[in-house]
Amino acid sequence: MKAAMYYEKANDTDVRCMLCPHGCFLKPGQTGICRARKNIEGELYSINYGKMTSLALDPIEKKPLVNFHPGSYILSAGSFGCNLKCSFCQNWRISQAESQSADMTPEALVEKAVGLLPRGNIGIAYTYNEPLIWYEFVRDCSLLAHENGLLNVLVTNGYIQKEPMEKLLPFVDAMNIDLKAFSSDFYKSICKGEIDFVMNTIRLCAEACHVEVTNLLIPGENDSEEEVSALSSWLAEVSQNITLHLTAYHPDYKMKKPGFMSRKRMFELINVAKKHLKNVYCGNMHILI
Ligand code: SF4
């Protein structure tokens, strides 16, 4: 646990968190929508600071990042909590539910990452759950990682206010940002968030570091040709260098329907996206029918 950044005191006992667009107003004892920040006696704390639920040396392509140090590995770390509530979440066991964690300091994580350099490790990826609501820990680790010659990667939903994102960006080398649909209604009804903030984050970060974007396609929800075309066209306007990953949905968490994407449909949609972007990849193909 560590004192949180980016909040204000509403009065002697209540606080408002200003890290992400939700702006949670919290009374003593209350935890934010993300489950990662709590008002304790009138002060806001990051309660997932140093709490590690997953740690693994992954191929960089698994993040997914295909145009950033291809063929390398990255030490991938995750905690608990998320500030979006996607009913199809594929990591819901750590993002939305209680899960066991182990304590780890930034020094210990960086030391582990340095120790893995001989095995092809290039740095640390903050991933699995949402790293932006692990903000203080990610910031402390990223600073230390850079001092030790390591790279930092964020795999994120991009749901954060502009100022904290700007302050973190000097320590971030690459990001994979989810753009879950190209529709305000989808974000509102299925993710409980606002698409505009995610689009702002993509714009901001694409100017500062290497950015790839993931769009998980769900049959009947966000997989029309019009929507994929509009999403790709907008990304191309932000930067032609953005790599887009179209990944196939499989039923998970609260969303048990619809069924799997078909291989044929995925290839049709990849061709739609390729009319706008030169780098389009397909993910989760192994689960397709
Ligand atoms: S980071 Fe968490 S506590 Fe802060 S506003 Fe977002 S959801 Fe609420």
Rg to the nearest angstrom?
19 Å
Number of strands: 16
Strand content: 15-25%
What is the global morphology? globular
In percent, how helical is the residue content?
A: 25-40%
Description of the molecule:
The protein is an alpha/beta fold. 28% of the residues lie in helices and 24% in strands. The chain contains eight helices and 16 strands. It has helices spanning 92-95, 106-115, 135-147, 162-168, 184-191, 195-206, 225-238, 263-274; strands at residues 2-3, 7-9, 15-17, 25-26, 37-40, 43-46, 51-52, 54-59, 73-78, 102-103, 121-126, 151-156, 174-178, 210-217, 243-248, 280-283. The strands form four sheets. It has an eight-stranded mixed sheet with strand order 8-9-11-12-13-14-15-16, covered by helices on one side. The longest helix is centred in the C-terminal third of the chain and has 14 residues, at 225-238. It is globular. The N and C termini lie far apart (45 Å). Iron/sulfur cluster binds next to loops.
